[in-house]
């Protein structure tokens, strides 16, 4: 079933037949069959009011601790501003609290420090849907935490977030607050997971041998989605909701109309053990693995004894 539902665009994937024999790992508040059919057609799904406020609060309190005291932690962050050229991704201790509270900031793999981050990304509502589309051992690939909208041009995930099998990839977008229209909200092209793949000059994945640029990729996606009449929608979901999207769904971040308006969010990418049997930073090593609600999370080999150092999530 993995090659059918995680691809999402294969017409032979029969959700009704699948559901008859499928035993979900958890009871969930949503209708799984309806959500799978919607995913298959549209390339994304929203799980409404699936996450309890307490867990969201605990996670964001950990983020605030990190930002207020970056010198204490081994994590990395990226700030996409010219003032940090030529190295925009650095150990977090190399950025000030003021920098980290600004725009264009990505906090990388924060889940490895935060117990709440691990519990949030493996919430039963998320895990049940991922289990249904992958039908394999789900593994966490990476995470990103944001204070503001990314304003990132249109893209698809699979050329950048790569595993051994590009189709074994899905993402969850978890808002930490109600998302406002002037915050630079996420947008996406409905059904665009079915569109023809862009060629970077050496195939569908971006690397050092690519001859075409990310901006050319964005231009291709915008133009092709319009030509194929894929509707463009804006994501204005509520705190407690979760968006899960297909690896090939074309999406991006709108312009921030109100510079003071935050867009607090947590983005998590997932794969399978078949496609990612190692931590992406150490492909030649056996990973140290934790399991949360049946999902494998590889400990970060660069964080050492700081793995799970933020323990507020133990309360949940």
The CATH architecture designation is Sandwich
Task: Give the integer mean of the pLDDT values.
Answer: 94
Count of individual domains: 1
Alpha-beta content class: alpha+beta
Helical fraction equals 10-25%
Poorly predicted runs are: none
CATH topology (fold) name: Jelly Rolls
- Total beta-strand segments: 13
Straight-line distance between termini: 33 Å
Tally of DSSP helical segments = 8
- Overall geometric form: globular
CATH class: Mainly Beta
Radius of gyration: 19 Å
- The spatial strand order of the largest sheet comes to 1-9-6-11-5-4-2-3
* CATH level 4 superfamily: q2cbj1_9rhob like domain
Q: Strand-and-helix sequence, N→C? A: HHHEHEEHEHHEEEHEEEEEE
Largest sheet: number of strands, sense, barrel closure? 8 strands, antiparallel
Percentage of residues in DSSP E strands: 15-25%
